[in-house]
Amino acid sequence: MKVNWLKFSALAALVNCALAKQPNILFIITDDQDGHMGSVEHMPLLKKHLIDKGTSFENHFCTIAICCPSRVNLWTGRAAHNTNVTDVGPPYGGYPKIVKEGINDDYLPVWMQAAGYNTYYTGKLWNAHTINNYNQPFVKGYNGSDFLLDPFTYDYWHARMSRNGQTPKDYSGQYSPDVVADKAYGFLEEAIAGDAPFFVTVAPIAPHSNIVAHPLTGLLNELEVLAPGAVNKFAIPEYAPRHAHLFKDYKIPRTEDFNPEEASGASWIAQLPKLNDTMIEYNDEFQRARLRALQSVDEMIERLVHLLDSKGVLEDTYVIFTTDNGFHASQHRMHPGKECGYDTDIHIPLVIRGPGLAAGDKRNIVTSHTDMAPTLLSIAGASRDDFDGLAIPLVSDKKSAQIAARGEHVNVEFWGIGLPEGKFGIVQPDGGLSYPNNTYKALRLVSKDYSLFYSVWCTGEREFYDVRRDPGQMHNFFADPKLAKDYTLAGRSWQQLIYRLDALLVVLKTCKGNTCVKPWESHHEDGSVAILTEALNPKFDNYYLKYPKVGFSSCELGYIKSAEGNQDHISHAGVSWMTDVEAPVQRGQEPFQYRGSWSDWV
């Protein structure tokens, strides 16, 4: 196909002109919205105003599937192992940890103000941002703000919010997503009337589980964080009465991973019993309620787009829609929840409408939340050199070079426990909610030729899925050696493939800056290898055979570097790529057998 370079140059000039004028940004982020159970498909106004008028990024991922660390990743452009915010509450996460790590002084809204933007935010910002610590210190970076505060953040009918640092106000009796929508409309009106470009973020809690705050008498000041237990439980999301009639016949898609006959996965997931009919019906209703809760967000999208249009600024505004992380319900026999590395939890929606973006387009480049801060700052015409991600190219030239420049990998990580939600999610005798040993490192690779997932758990267990053949991520090669016996990629055995994936993950689990963007250069300093298939060249077999493997010495609840195995990379000095090639190749003809740790593989 011939490229009309004159037309493309004109389009590029138009985009450059728009960027020079610093376009406006409206950023909408939902909470726990799934990408695999039809939530986007059940938002017709999102489709009408953003999907049909903008570009959908089909391979967008979060890098840590829990809200607070994911939002820190999004607003800083740094991986969770570099922000050191890895949980929703102290000591490893939440607002106190964010302040301690200096993030309140050095993150996207602060940078956007420095770039000349008026900034506004309403809805949920951080977990453990409470009615008691909202002014310790005040959140920085916003001209106007109205934050949902714990312990009422996820209580759909009893929200408490602090506007511009003032004493929290009680909104009991009003539906929280509608309250946030009204505040968003007001801030957007104020922003449009201002004398500078604006960056407005709207963060309703839908479709997150409902958590009713029931502080006991005299304990209100101690109820800083909504912790699961006898007092606070993750219940079916609440929805506005006007949406109660919707989705009566909806059922979660009965895909292969839906409540399978045989257990799958690793660690606690592999031990789950099959869900019974009562649980399945409950989970279906749980997801119906999530879809109903999202309808208020859908209505808000149309309302805000109409406001932009009526004020004549829609064409000068980037409207971005995404969520913090995905969600599962019945897949792999799991109760509703997140915190896993599977696509249900990390593969999420990203839609952008704005100058230069094609209407109704779908892009297949690999993107993640680590790329969002660089992207937004790039829209503002500014930049930094300390990002772990890369600005997303908003104008596609449809050339493969652009895709190759971005890479094909996403670094995924998690520390702590798994939290099942809903009334059947209680797994402890005392009524507590938790699955231990949910700490893992993983990577996701997507290209036109393959789609892979590889994870290493703190327990020593490992997972590998060919997601193109196995979209439900049901058939773990490490659990079934027969799968690996005849498997090849680019003509190489599965064992040689795993050597490469493990070496890539060793780099990504501690990467920083450009190393996160181009991790293969840590192995091939001459830049000769940029993608997996290039690393699979047989001349590199001896090097990857000897390279340190990913491992943990213990399962920790947060990022404790000393517990995460060998931190040193093999030096390139003295390595001969062509030495001892034959021995590793011959050794690689036999499939791996798991015996507890990497040193036990044969």
TrEMBL record:
Catalytic activity: an aryl sulfate + H2O = a phenol + sulfate + H(+)
Modifications made to the protein after synthesis: The conversion to 3-oxoalanine (also known as C-formylglycine, FGly), of a serine or cysteine residue in prokaryotes and of a cysteine residue in eukaryotes, is critical for catalytic activity.
Enzyme's top EC category: hydrolase
GO biological process: phenol-containing compound metabolic process
Signal peptide: 1-20
Molecular-function GO terms, alphabetical: arylsulfatase activity; glycosaminoglycan binding; N-acetylglucosamine-6-sulfatase activity
Name this protein carries in UniProt: Arylsulfatase
Keyword Cell wall biogenesis/degradation assigned: no
Origin species: Aureobasidium subglaciale (strain EXF-2481) (Aureobasidium pullulans var. subglaciale)
Span of domain Sulfatase N-terminal: 23-382
Family: Belongs to the sulfatase family.
PROSITE patterns cross-referenced by the UniProt entry: SULFATASE_1
Keyword Glycoprotein on entry: yes
CDD domains named among the record's database cross-references: G6S
PTM-bearing positions, type 3-oxoalanine (Cys): 67
Enzyme Commission no: 3.1.6.1
SUPFAM superfamilies recorded: Alkaline phosphatase-like (SSF53649)
Pfam families documented for this protein: Sulfatase (PF00884)
Gene3D superfamilies assigned to the protein according to its UniProt record, in alphabetical order: Alkaline Phosphatase, subunit A
Assigned keywords, A-Z: Glycoprotein, Hydrolase, Signal
